[in-house]
Specification:
Blueprint lengths: L13 E4 L4 E3 L5 E4 L6 E6 L12 E9 L2 E13 L8 E6 L3 E5 L4 E3 L3 H4 L1 H13 L5 H35 L2 E4 L4 H4 L6 H23 L2 E14 L14
Parallel strand pairs: 7-10
Antiparallel strand pairs: 1-5, 2-3, 3-4, 4-11, 5-6, 6-11, 7-8, 8-9
Length: 244
């Protein structure tokens, strides 16, 4: 293989711990990182109740940096058994650019176009970034404001796809769809942007939720709980991990 020094990411935005390197408090409202990286004790801000799960069920702890703050995810090993009553319906879905999807029953789901509606705000924030001096504190603030806009759009698209997928899997027993080759579709330079905005990420989340919903009983490892950290303006050092 290739020889040389190990390479690391310059701007690592997440770090993952297994069963060691962290410890929850008795109230499950605080988490302490014991890997001697200077993070220390942090308060968990959220509505999820971790007392419902045992400590040995938490298999992973992931610390994530987003534009609006720091988050911690807990990967919990649990049996996700869902008892459903067969609806006796089947449906076929066709994804498009103008509409989000059209089913075999003739129902057309409109495309909210979150990215297109926010393009004006993105351009404004991007101009603000380009006007600031490189390396200055004001440029970092402008970059953070731009990142918050992108984060809001990403969350809007993802939540919309999850909501529609949940409706589809609860009302149908079998969902048929076409396997799109997005890599080949974007070779059309006239429609590449519309395809990437409308199809790539959103449809990926949509089909994944549909597939998970059709599995009646599964034992899975999933990031079920996500908390926002109370940092009190404390800078959290993120460890550079080559495996992330």
């Amino acid at each position: 293989g290739k020889k040389g020094y190990p390479t690391f990411k310059k701007n690592s935005r997440s770090v993952e711990y297994k069963v060691s390197g962290w410890k929850l408090s008795e109230t499950r409202k605080q988490i302490t990182f014991t890997d001697k990286k200077g993070i220390g004790k942090l308060k968990l801000k959220g509505t999820w109740d971790l007392n419902f799960y045992q400590i040995d069920q938490i298999k992973r702890v992931r610390l994530i940096r987003r534009a609006d703050g720091y988050y911690v995810q807990f990967a919990i090993s649990a049996d996700n058994n869902v008892d459903t009553t067969p609806a006796g319906k089947t449906v076929g879905l066709d994804v498009g650019l103008k509409e989000f999807y059209t089913d075999s029953d003739g129902h057309v789901e409109p495309n909210p176009k979150f990215y297109r509606k926010s393009e004006k705000q993105l351009k404004f924030r991007q101009r603000r970034v380009s006007r600031k001096k490189k390396g200055s504190a004001n440029r970092k603030k402008a970059i953070n404001r731009l990142g918050r806009v992108h984060l809001k759009i990403s969350r809007q698209r993802e939540e919309h796809a999850k909501k529609l997928a949940r409706c589809v899997i609860q009302s149908n027993d079998l969902v048929a769809y076409e396997n799109l080759r997005i890599k080949n579709l974007v070779k059309n330079h006239c429609l590449a942007k519309s395809i990437m905005v409308s199809i790539q990420k959103v449809v990926g989340v949509f089909w994944r939720k549909v597939w998970q919903g059709n599995c009646r009983s599964q034992s899975c490892l999933y990031f079920a709980k996500m908390f926002k950290l109370r940092c009190n303006r404390k800078k959290i050092p993120i460890r550079k991990n080559p495996r992330l």
